[in-house]
Amino acid sequence: MLPETFWGRIQYLLQQYGSSFLSGAGNTMIIAIVGTFLGCLIGFIVGILQTIPVDKRDSAVKKTLVGFLKFIMACYVEFFRGTPMMVQAMFIYYGSAYLFNINMSMWFAAFFVVSINTGAYMAETVRGGILSVDEGQTEAAKAIGMTHVQTMMNVILPQALRNIMPQIGNNLIINIKDTCVLSIIGIVELFYTTKGVAGAYYTYFESFTIAMVMYFILTFVCSRLLRLLEHKMEGPQNYDLATTDTLAHTSGLYSYPKKKEEK
Fold first, then answer.
1. What are phi and psi of 251, to 5 degrees?
2. Other residues' Cβ atoms within 10 Å of the Cβ of residue 172
3. For a surface tag, which of 133, 137, 151, 203 has the fewest beta carbons within 10 Å of its beta carbon?
4. What stretches of 235-263 show up as alpha helix (H) in DSSP?
5. Stretch 201-209: mean pLDDT, rounded?
6. Which carries the bigger pLDDT value, residue 119 or residue 251?
């Protein structure tokens, strides 16, 4: 018998469907984490390709290829940033079977949609992070003989990664919430589970209150963990000097003594 009070119904739903809510939340986190990780990889690749330098002395073939590549990357970014994820999920999941006779599984389609959608947003973030690094560092790297790939991997990207970490965390939080749109292709995540429980007893307010609290807990915990990771990447505020030079002090911060005043 369904209780009459609000909190009584909340307790009843948790007792009856607590495991279902947890299973849905687990599926939500799996899709969000995997999709964000793959999306970051896509975003880094696209962002790096978008910042390939072209010099006036380069051949016409290279200029044409780089220009065409940047045009394709720009089309990808604009398309997936300019259309809703729900529409993308419907188009990819059902359209792939209709147009190309490719029968995707629901899970593969979910990972694919979240990844390419996140990749489009991350591409612009990575591009901005790369451009935010002072050009003098690129010139210095080239001056000591580094190639463009070596400069990116050893000089630019480590700094860009630290700068864009807040946006990576923001994309994870967004994906945790936006996985609810994947219920339209049958993915049993937290929103899909909540909708089923609410429809069984017509307890929409109580069921979605539980879902709202669970979404908040997931996003809050992830945001706190990512904040700790950001602090770790910043490193310590004070550093000890270390050198193998026998004429220099080997460690610690050193303050040279003042010269004695001449008499």
1. -160, 165
2. 23
3. 137
4. none
5. 92
6. 119
The pair of three-digit structure tokens given for residue 8, joined into one six-digit string: 């009584």
Helix residue ranges per DSSP H, 3-105: 6-50, 60-81, 85-100
Which residues make Cβ contacts (< 8 Å) with residue 186, sequence separation at least 6? Answer: 106, 192
Compute the distance between CA of residue 34 and CA of residue 51 in angstroms, rounded to an integer.
Answer: 26
Of residues 249 and 130, more confidently modeled? 130
**End-to-end CA gap in the chain:** 100
Spell out a b/e string for 43-52, using b for 16 or more CB atoms within 10 Å of the CB, else e. bbebbbebbe
In whole angstroms, what is the distance from residue 121 CA to residue 108 CA? 20
Percentage of the chain beyond pLDDT 70 is: 89
Amino acid 245: pLDDT: 53
Band (pLDDT 50/70/90 cuts) for residue 221 is very high
**Residue-level pLDDT at 138:** 79
218 Cβ contact partners less than 8 Å away, ≥ 6 residues apart: 25, 28, 29, 176
Q: Would you say 194 and 210 are in contact if contact means Cβ atoms under 8 Å apart?
A: yes
Confirm if 110 and 192 have CB atoms less than 8 A apart.
no
